[in-house]
Amino acid sequence: MAEDGVRRRLAAILAAVVVGYSRLMSGDEAGTLARLKAFRRELFEPKTKHYRGRIFKTTGDGALVEFKSAIDAVNSTVDIQRMLAEREAEVPEDRRVRLRIGISLGDVIVEGSDLYGNGVNVAARMESLAEPGGICISGNVYEQVRGVVGLAFDNLGEQKFKNITNPICAYRVRLGSSGVTDPDRHQGGAAPPLPDKPSIAILPFDNLSRDPDQRYLADGIVEDIITELSKYTWLLVIARNTSFTFRDKGVDIKEVGQKLRVRYVMEGSIRRTGDRVRITAQLIDAQSGAHVWAEHFDRDLADVFAVQDEITQNVAGAIQPRLIAAEADRARTKPPESMVAWP
User: pTM score, two decimals?
Assistant: First the structure.
C-alpha cells in the first residue's frame, strides 16, 4: 500500500556532472565560473527546454533534469554533448569544460519541485559510468530508444552499484555513430578510438576441471587481479561486471578489444588434479592478436586464499613491466606530435 500523501510518477532522469570541476576552479575560479554560467545559460538550459525537460536541481558542478520521454532525454543529451564539444574545441585540453551524463527511467517521488527515489539514484550511477564527454543509459532507457533515435550503443553488461539491490544493465551511447542500434557489434566504419592511456580487460578464466567449485577459485583470482591492477593510476582497467559478460562466449580477442575499447586483454584457465592446481594466464595485444606475456603456475591447495593471493601478486607483478615495455614500443612507432604522455 502506498504511503499516505506521497506523490509518485514515472520519469526519465538526466544526471550531468562537470568533469574535473575542482581542478578547473582551482586553476581559474572566476573564469571557470563565468564559462560554466554561460554554458548553462546559452546551451544547457535552452536544449533542455527545447526537448521539454525540467531542471529540478543544480549544484556547482552538475544538474538533474526530468523528462516525460526517454527519447527526449537522449536526444537532448546528444545535442548538448556534441555542441559542447564544438564549443570547447579551441580551448586547451586541460581547460575544456566536459560533461559526464547518465540517463535512467524510473519511478520518482515528487516533493514540491524536487524529485527523489530510485529513478534519480540510477541516473547518478549511470553518470558515474560515462566517460568525459560521454553518455551512459540504463537498460530500460535503451529499450525505449533503440531503433528510434538513430544512434548506436555499446552494451556494458550488468553493473552492480552500492545501495542498489539489483544489478542494472548499462549502455554507452556512441556519439560518433548513427544508424540501426546494435549493442553487440560495431556498425560499419572505424571503431571508436581507444582511451588515451593503456587499457586492459581481464576476462573470466576458463574452468578446465570437472569440479564446478573451481569456478569460484578462478573468479576470485580474476577479481583480485582486477583490483590489484586498478591501483595503477596510469592503467585503465575494465570493471569485472563488464568483462564477465564475455564468459563462455568464445569470442575473438580482437572483437573483445573493439567492444570494450581496450588495448590489451588477459585470459586464462584453471585446472585442478587432486590437491594440485595449475593456473595459466596470457596477456594479448587486442589490436594485433600477438601474445605479450604468458605463464603458468602450479600450486598446492593447502590454503586456497594464500594461493589466490600469491597468483594475483605474481600475475600483476609480471604484466606491469610487460605493459610498460609494450606501450614504449607502441609509442616509438608513432610520430612525435601524436604521442600521448602517460606516467
Answer: 0.53
